[in-house]
Amino acid sequence: MNIWIMRHGEAGFNAPNDAARSLTDNGIKNVISQGKWLGEYLNNKQIKLDKILVSPYLRAKQTLETLITGMQAVNFSQSFASLTEEWEEITPDGNPYVVEDYLHFLREEGAKNILLISHLPLVFDLSQRLTSNQSNVQFPTSTIAEIHWVGNKGEVTEIKHT
């Protein structure tokens, strides 16, 4: 299974609570750039996503929408609506063990390519968990890390920062 773990784009702090923070103009620009890169990358490898997991926080949902815009700009043609699952377990305080269990389930159901958009510290903790603490991926905003995950052991195969 290939898992692309992405941290949301840069978000502002002018919001009534953490869940309501929205992307900044710079965050949108960087996520579009990442979307173009990811769209070209998946096109070149002829990969279609099987599932997209996104945090219910506003900045994560905006990141997904903006990422798709960038992917479509490079003619990555796939319908995302039926693939997308908003999941409360991938908020900043999410448990990487619970996420790993769900990824096992998705793999058993036949999923091969998963995109996950979340927050620190979960994205860092999850990458550590999936690679058995072998990969110390830093996650500035908009970063995407690809993990090739076989059995219970994963390896980071690509990291893309903006």
TrEMBL record:
GO terms for molecular function: protein histidine phosphatase activity. One of its GO terms (cellular component) is cytoplasm. Gene3D superfamilies: Phosphoglycerate mutase-like. Coiled coil: none annotated. This is Phosphohistidine phosphatase SixA. It comes from Mannheimia bovis.
